[in-house]
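Title: Comparing notes on inverse folding

I've been comparing how different people in this forum approach sequence design from structure. To keep things fair, I'm posting one structure and asking everyone to reply with a full sequence. Here's the target:
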């Protein structure tokens, strides 16, 4: 098997030179960058790197695309809906380009790592200046520099390499006290419905020393919550293991917990086939690790799990849940569910509802199955749309009842939250999150933002708690 390519420090330095070239080219002009990000936290983390590079090149981040000199659309390919949204927003930027011909528009991320989507952009969006795949992110300064000087549009697609890792790129994190840290990239699991392994390359882990150094810096800078990211964090280290003993995700977590500082650690996502008792033991032992576990089930039917190539069954999954609850009785458990995978029968779907009731999830993220070109499931017989939609509603109704019952017991309790900021729906309130990641709304002063507060819960809804400062 081909090895992960570590981008050398010379290559990263070369990109720094391109950053300086772009900056000097504009000669101190006031320039703005607008980044539109779709999809998962990994994409958000990538956008923070793109933003960091743009800032080094002299661009100021803006939330208004109309004032931008550079627009980047960082796309997602996991479901068709996300792709259509990205294409639709690209369409909306056409008039900006007409008003300001010097505007550079680039599309990157998972969607354009697929050949047919690259072709869509080439044919239907002629005003897009450049396009680059996920493995090209580290070369963004050079790509932009070349696009600024090219007479024609430029397309930088993934090269078919198994993937690379670039350390030392600048990063501009979103404001606040939370930070993402990617610990690995790519995926080897090839679930039959999923496009990720095709657009993100093979699983590759960052060196522990690089991750520990990044977390140490974030903790010293005062970040209060650090979320470790990977498509399957439980595979961490498999590719690093030499002949000797493997350094795995549980080892990494233990080492991160030794870093001094007042911060909480979260992680996502965990594939149930690789979630180990060792990992659960570390979580139970370490106060720095938030007691929240996102464990995507996808389906409660063993037949469908097999067709999805998930490599676990109900029994294994339930064993993990029992073990977690035994070690951490107050743990919050969340999951992802796909409704209407090809061949899903009424009985299979009932099995999913049964798992919801048995596990008693705090929250679920549910998706209608979306066929992805090039994946095995796209060739299977689909479930009719009307049946999919009806099942989806039943899933939501079932979960609503479960969550309502669970949160009802929280009324009257005291909950410690990390205060995030003003509520998006009601500016008179602040919002915070409990260790279990439950959202709490309460009245309070801005001075509390980024700090801990103790709230007495007065009202509980399935997706939010309400309370008063104690
Ligand atoms: N690596 C993560 C998931 C990444 S994709 C994991 O394995 O848990 C995030 C979620 O999108 C998945 O958990 C799945 O529920 C959903 N998803 C992925 N492909 C999908 C598809 N083709 N249709 C509908 N939902 C999908
Ligand atoms: Fe997709 Fe499965 Fe990999 Fe998750 S583990 S990214 S669902 S292939």
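Reply #1:
Here's my take.
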């Amino acid at each position: 098997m081909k090895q992960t390519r570590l981008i050398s420090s010379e290559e990263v330095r070369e990109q720094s030179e391109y950053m300086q070239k772009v900056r000097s080219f504009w000669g101190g002009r006031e320039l703005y960058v607008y980044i539109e990000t779709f999809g998962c936290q990994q994409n958000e983390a990538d956008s923070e790197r793109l933003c960091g590079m743009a800032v080094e090149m002299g661009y100021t981040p803006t939330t208004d695309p109309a004032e931008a000199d550079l627009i980047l659309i960082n796309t997602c390919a996991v479901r068709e809906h996300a792709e259509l949204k990205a294409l639709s927003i690209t369409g909306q930027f056409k008039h900006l380009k007409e008003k300001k011909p010097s505007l550079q528009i680039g599309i990157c991320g998972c969607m354009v790592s697929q050949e047919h989507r690259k072709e869509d952009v080439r044919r239907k969006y002629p005003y897009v200046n450049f396009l680059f795949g996920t493995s090209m992110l580290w070369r963004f300064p050079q790509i932009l520099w070349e696009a600024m000087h090219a007479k024609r549009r430029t397309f930088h697609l993934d090269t078919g390499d198994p993937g690379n890792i670039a350390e030392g790129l600048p990063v501009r994190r979103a404001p606040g006290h939370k930070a993402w840290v990617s610990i690995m990239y790519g995926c080897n699991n090839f679930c039959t419905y999923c496009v990720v392994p095709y657009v993100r390359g093979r699983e590759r882990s960052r060196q522990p020393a690089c991750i520990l150094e990044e977390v140490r810096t974030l903790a010293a800078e005062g970040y209060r919550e650090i979320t470790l990211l990977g498509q399957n964090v439980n595979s961490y280290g498999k590719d690093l293991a030499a002949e000797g003993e493997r350094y795995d995700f549980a080892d990494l977590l233990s080492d991160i917990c030794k870093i001094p500082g007042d911060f909480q650690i979260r992680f996502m996502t965990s594939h149930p086939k690789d979630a180990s008792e060792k990992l659960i033991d570390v979580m139970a032992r370490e106060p720095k690790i938030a007691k929240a576990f996102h464990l995507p089930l996808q389906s409660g039917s063993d037949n469908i799990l097999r067709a999805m190539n998930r490599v676990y069954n109900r029994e294994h999954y339930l064993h993990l849940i029992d073990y977690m609850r035994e070690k951490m009785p107050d743990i919050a458990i969340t999951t992802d569910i796909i409704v209407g995978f090809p061949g899903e029968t009424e009985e299979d779907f009932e099995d999913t509802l049964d798992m919801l009731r048995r596990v008693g999830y705090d929250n679920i993220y549910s998706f209608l199955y979306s066929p992805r070109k090039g994946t095995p499931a796209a060739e299977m017989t689909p479930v009719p749309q009307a049946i999919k939609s009806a099942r989806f509603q039943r899933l939501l109704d079932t979960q609503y009842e479960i969550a309502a019952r669970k949160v009802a017991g929280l009324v009257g309790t005291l909950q410690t939250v990390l205060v995030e900021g003003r509520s998006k729906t009601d500016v008179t309130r602040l919002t915070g999150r409990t260790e279990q990641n439950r959202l709490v709304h309460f009245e309070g002063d801005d001075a509390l933002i980024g700090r801990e507060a103790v709230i007495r819960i007065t009202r509980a809804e399935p997706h939010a708690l309400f309370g008063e400062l104690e």
